[in-house]
């Protein structure tokens, strides 16, 4: 009885150990090498699979001494959820042919997962003389692996900060198979890049070559990237599941070849860009982050007008570059001219080479007095990546002449010296003193007790109630904290979010304008350059300014919404909510900054 009881306890202990070991293997990281066979003929092929249960970086295969790689590496990814638990598998596959007879070692492969380096166990393979009937004829999956290649072609691997980089994803297909359909498995998010998709309206097959062999290829996706940080930036891979028809060696009753359908997962692989920082040497003081090749102009709709009439002054930049990612310079106007907030206008098209078009700020100007007012020249600086130098363009001085209207008597002394403009009257400036005057005598009346005397005495008493009423009114307005906050929020929203409000209902244009408005607000308040706009930099700067964490998270959430809007459908209600959140966040940040 005691022996039976001991055996039962031993069995339960073993079962518990086996369960725990199985669970540890299931939860742990695994990186293994699998061979299709350990003994093969000289005329046969060997398939080697390196499989991991968690994605990693810097995969390094062995040297494959004694073998020649005829295909690979091809990637396949499998991810699924079963009973709330995620299952992931990624495999690198090589097809090898032996170069000589004998025993060979497939050495260790390495990969980095979560900062740790993992290695496979080496395995021995015996290569014998050629066999009469090779047992490893190409399978349907082998043919599909050899015939499908997804490639990410990058226009420039060493760009400057904010220089356009085009990524074109091409699917190369061998003439031996045909593609029936595909679906994306993993779309890159392009972190640290400002991205703009170029829609591919028609998938047209073209003839080309891949690794020296004839292939057909289809352009699946185009995207233009503007790097927002310098250094090593990774472009995440695009992964697709491709459904293909592969011909077999069998034929039907009428002699036609029989096709078998299969699906394969292909990946473009991760690409790394070495982004160069803009040079500090020769950087102009008014440089605002413009990178490209531009023209610059300042124009007015008229140069002669009457007082109280209006004219429009346009500050415009046109050309090719990061047109949406910098701020236009502001003209310095005479203080005697009333200037309204500018209306921003953009006419931009995105091509495979980057953004092209023009952006402008339109100022409405209303002169109050008669005279001549020069508008000083305005300078605009940008970095040209083709020449590797900064260039500065300067507009011509414009003279505005106000023909009719009141004559200004004083000049605003508080305005900057650049804004001080003398008003030049056009009428007679001097009058001669009359020597022969016709003088008449005045009746000498007593001022004390006169009507003017009593008016001056009692007028201050009448003004006291008016002053009290005015003081209480201002006190009530000042005590209305909520009302003042709403007014301030509306004022700031009109200033920085005016373009976004006009684009409500147009998803892409609204979120581009909203993102630019948020960036312009930070640039005005914190003097952050456009090239430094990253979520980490914004969080670090606002934290250093002792801004509340909830407000920082709200601002970052808005930027995230702007990024997600490029890939997800957003309703008009969501856009309206984001606009109201932006107004509220700007108001809270402005109060703390």
Largest sheet: 5 strands, antiparallel
Shape verdict: elongated
Mean pLDDT: 80
End-to-end separation in angstroms reads 82 Å
Number of helices: 9
Query: How many E strands?
Result: 30
- Proportion of beta-strand residues: 35-45%
Q: Could you say which structural class the secondary elements and strand pairing correspond to? A: alpha+beta
How many individual domains?
4
The share of residues in helices is: 25-40%
Unreliably modeled segments: 8-27, 409-432
**Radius of gyration using CA atoms only:** 38 Å
What is the secondary structure topology, with strand pairs?
Elements: H1 2-27, E1 31-35, E2 39-41, E3 46-52, E4 57-60, E5 67-82, E6 85-98, E7 102-106, E8 110-113, E9 116-119, E10 123-128, H2 140-147, E11 148-154, E12 165-173, E13 178-186, E14 193-198, E15 206-210, E16 213-227, E17 231-235, E18 239-251, E19 257-267, E20 271-275, E21 292-300, E22 304-305, E23 311-321, E24 337-339, E25 343-351, E26 354-367, E27 371-375, E28 379-384, E29 389-394, E30 398-402, H3 451-479, H4 481-496, H5 498-502, H6 507-526, H7 535-544, H8 549-564, H9 572-592
Parallel strand pairs: 2-10, 22-30
Antiparallel strand pairs: 1-3, 3-6, 4-8, 5-6, 7-10, 8-9, 11-12, 12-16, 13-18, 14-16, 15-16, 17-20, 18-19, 21-23, 23-26, 24-26, 25-26, 27-30, 28-29
Describe the fold and architecture:
The protein is α+β, with helices and mostly antiparallel strands. The protein has 4 domains: 26-136, Immunoglobulin-like (Sandwich), CATH 2.60.40; 143-275, no CATH class; 292-419, Immunoglobulin-like (Sandwich), CATH 2.60.40; 481-592, Four Helix Bundle (Hemerythrin (Met), subunit A). It is 25% helix and 38% strand. The protein is built from 9 helices and 30 strands. It has helices at residues 2-27, 140-147, 451-479, 481-496, 498-502, 507-526, 535-544, 549-564, 572-592, and strands at residues 31-35, 39-41, 46-52, 57-60, 67-82, 85-98, 102-106, 110-113, 116-119, 123-128, 148-154, 165-173, 178-186, 193-198, 206-210, 213-227, 231-235, 239-251, 257-267, 271-275, 292-300, 304-305, 311-321, 337-339, 343-351, 354-367, 371-375, 379-384, 389-394, 398-402. The strands form 9 sheets. Strands 11, 12, 14, 15 and 16 form a 5-stranded antiparallel sheet that branches. Strands 21, 23, 24, 25 and 26 form a 5-stranded antiparallel sheet that branches. A 4-stranded antiparallel sheet has the order 1-3-6-5. A hairpin with a 2-residue loop joins β25 and β26 (354-367). The longest helix has 29 residues, at 451-479. The chain is elongated and about 140 Å long. The N and C termini lie far apart (82 Å). Residues 8-27 and 409-432 have low confidence and may be disordered.
